[in-house]
Amino acid sequence: MEKYRILIVDDEKEICDACASILKSCDYIIETALNGAEAFRKIGEKVPDIVIADVNMPGMNGMELLRRTKKAYPEISILLITGYSTVGDAVEAMKLGASDYIPKPFMPEELRVKVSKMLESKGMIKENKRLKKELGDRYAFGKAMGKCQAMQKIYDLLEKVSCTDSTILITGESGTGKELVAHAIHHNSPRKGRPFVSVDCSSLSENLMESELFGHMKGSFTGAAADKPGLFETAEGGTLFMDEIGNITLGVQAKLLRVLQEKEFKRVGDVVNKKADVRIIAATNKNLKKMVKDSSFREDLFYRLNVVPVHIPPLRERKEDIPLFIENFLSIRGKGSKVRSFSPEAMNLMMEYNWPGNVRELENLVERLAVTVADESVLPNHLPNEFRKDEVRLSAEVPRSSDKLKEAKRDLRAKAVEELEKLFVSSALERNNGNVSRTALEVKMKRQNFHSLMRKHGIRRREEYN
Questions:
Q1: Same-domain status, 98 and 40
Q2: Is 436 within 8 Å of 447 (Cβ atoms)?
Q3: What element of type H or E holds 5?
Q4: Which segments within 303-428 are labelled E, that is strand?
Q5: How far apart are CA 145 and CA 153, in angstroms?
Q6: Collapsing DSSP states into helix, strand and coil, what is residue 8?
Q7: Which CDD domains does the record cross-reference, listed alphabetically (predicted)?
Q8: What's the pLDDT tens digit per position in 108-126?
Q9: How many domains does the chain have?
């Protein structure tokens, strides 16, 4: 980790040296300057994390240095020192952007504590910015959904509707990334600083779904021991994502329709209406139009939800996005992993695969490979059997001579043995929770021999990646 850099500014060299001596024990990089002009020049050469400056100096004093520094380098934290401590000085310093204020004389520990707290606050601000950037990168429309031509019209549409409060209905096969798209819409909307709340409508019964969405009052049903807010209250000012909306009952559909029409609802057992300032994004893998015809889904609710319809095509129809998804998933799921890329051969197999589980299947596979592969590049032999069957079949051309037949048989035999060895090792490790010594004992092999097999097939111990 890079060391923090601190610049100490005082027209008295003894004060500079004393402060430097106090802080050197904390393993900071310390520099000093004997006046404001020298300090500002040094700041321009190498920006410090903290400037500790005396207020009373000839020429450019501490207050002027504070003004110039905060204007040019607002990220620098500044601690002002003075021998004439007044409330007015403190207020003025804080107004100009000082992080803290310390009067002379002060104890060494007092200076250390103030600097430590300033650096802790600075670290939290940096981490917050990093997380916001990471979140922004993850939910940028291109990274969330890919950049293929089939998605360009969807991007244009979502960029327009994200800044509105229009209800959106996302359709597509299971695993196409409907919730990720909902997250991206929320993150690119004016509501992004407010809650994003999701509910799987297929996981709850009618009674539980009503209580979950709208909340309930104490005693409204057996087990209601206290008042409980629902998801509409939890998502106040933000977005409520209702996944598998096609699974809600007609009774809940009627109450959801009222929320969409009147922007209000009642908790279960309550008589008072509550206002709902919530944007609804719904998703389904069912054909709601057919359900309307079958009378299993309300037609009026369908049209209220289907204000902006968005259909996400399956991954097999946009395979050109697979490399982008892999890069994105590796950056998110592959932290701490050695894996940096896929070999061209492995990428070809990924592109040829049909992906019945869509983007979710791809994300899970990338995460698994990031955890289990010990190399920087994923190779074909690291991929599951269903990917490599095509590879074996395509590589096994019909021989035209006896020698070619023998060579092909050797190759196929070697591939079969390699796959069997890999399955043997991974299955044995799984049975023993990744413990190599216990696994070697179970399969009756020397530990070093078993470990050699692991290295041969790029399989890592569980304790190395947990």
A1: yes
A2: yes
A3: strand 5-9
A4: 308-311, 341-342, 377-378
A5: 12
A6: strand
A7: AAA
A8: 898 999 998 888 887 766 6
A9: 3
